[in-house]
Amino acid sequence: MIPALATLLVFQLLGEVAVRLTGAPVPGPVVGLALLLLALLLRPSALEAIKPTTQGLLQHLSLLFVPAGVGVMQHLQRLGDEALALGVALVVSTLLGLLATAFTLLALMHWQARREGPRDGG
């Protein structure tokens, strides 16, 4: 278990270092996860070494939400004070996300129709 946890932490560290060196606008742990995926694709046998530990972490993933819940409870008054702004931001961002998705879908459908060319009606 310790070597598997060390492996996960090393890849997280590699991701943090890569982000700091490149200034990429991506969280270090995400880059570390991508590097781990690449390593596992190149050496599939390593998966068996970390699989039991990662499955154990995933089984207890809900515990990682406890700090976020505590943070919300500590700032409940502020959330109440900013409720209108938060509500507007949530609604507007959701609508923008839906619009972006719809326009992307329409553009891809148009692109696919042009690529397939005219069809014979028969």
TrEMBL record:
Pfam families: LrgA. GO terms for cellular component: plasma membrane. It is found in: Cell membrane. The keyword Transmembrane helix applies. Keywords: Cell membrane, Membrane, Transmembrane, Transmembrane helix. Its main location: membrane. InterPro entries: LrgA/CidA (IPR005538). The chain crosses the membrane at residues 30-50, 57-77, 83-109. It is a multi-pass membrane protein. This is CidA/LrgA family protein. The lineage of its organism: Bacteria, Pseudomonadati, Pseudomonadota, Betaproteobacteria, Burkholderiales.
